[in-house]
Amino acid sequence: MLFTMSVLQNTVILDRLLAVAQLFTEDSERELGKLGLTTARTHVLWVLHHGGPSTQRALADVLAVTPRNVTGLVDGLEATGYVRRAPHPDDRRAVLVTLTERGTVVMEKMAADHAALADSLMAGLDDTDRGGLDRGLIHVIHRLEALIVEARGTPEQDGAA
Amino acid sequence: MLFTMSVLQNTVILDRLLAVAQLFTEDSERELGKLGLTTARTHVLWVLHHGGPSTQRALADVLAVTPRNVTGLVDGLEATGYVRRAPHPDDRRAVLVTLTERGTVVMEKMAADHAALADSLMAGLDDTDRGGLDRGLIHVIHRLEALIVEARGTPEQDGAA
DNA sequence: TATTGTTATACTCTATAACTATA
DNA sequence: TATAGTTATAGAGTATAACAATA
Prior knowledge:
The structure is a homodimer. The first copy, chain A, is mostly helical. Chain A is about 65% helix and about 5% strand. Chain A has helices at about 10-35, 40-50, 55-65, 65-80, 100-120, 125-155, and strands at about 55, 85, 95-100. The first copy, chain A, has a 3-stranded antiparallel β-sheet with strand order 1-3-2. In chain A, helix 3 crosses helix 4. Chain A is globular and about 55 Å long. In chain A, about 20% of the residues are buried. Mean pLDDT of chain A is about 85; it is low at about 155-160. The structure holds a DNA duplex.
């Protein structure tokens, strides 16, 4: 199935949603930029905020990214004062990445904004449509999951054993 | 409003949807990679497929990206045989970027897949929930648009005149 | 003088490979 | 021998700035 996210901007309602979401994201990234943050680095902060101090190895797994990449992201976040590297108490090879005061403050604001956004998006929607929206989205999620399983279930139909 | 797309993976249903959509996108990007395509380059092809031959300047505007960036994307697509640069008939400064046969074939497949995906995602959803989903999404779109207008309406509240 | 596209330069995100210090 | 994180290197996407050719 050939498909790109950015391409989804040309049909029906989901496409309109994605188009608006992209505008919204651009605004948000601009705001993050003022704080010296990028999307990738913010994602690291978010993971730390919700999971607590973490080794870089664990971060690499959660972010689905190489350890080398994490080194760079943490370097940037350390230079801008959002995180701190500390020795791991039990394993002298490993490093514990921890949010600084500054990092914690920003993430608390982001979590609050995130929750407020979810409320705000749903405000004024009557219960019937809200139920339909929920069930419809879950339906779409299940269909997508099925498509993913289907695609991955056929292992390399290109001939490579 | 502090916010990142990748962060939206931790609340309610929209977050689940985005998480699944990301998995789906990863699969699709892998498939694009087999064709020597990336997301950014595919987006160029998509615009050309739907808008016809275009100058690089126009592409830069549509993609919301710098002209320099377009140069690089078109270089890549030209090297892999998806597009062709041709002189502009009326303006000797400009270049017309055109899909090659290969580019057209790929985009036709993508458009077909895209339409089939939209159908597939909705299949089996009863009319009531489908109506609720539609109205709910439009509601969310309008709320997002309102938030964007609101944020942009206040011009630089940081003090810069 | 303004516009189109390019060269030059730089930064971020990402990846692989080789290496160090530790388990 | 395996694991955590680093240095080295590379490629894609993005940006700004300076410049050539053309309007």
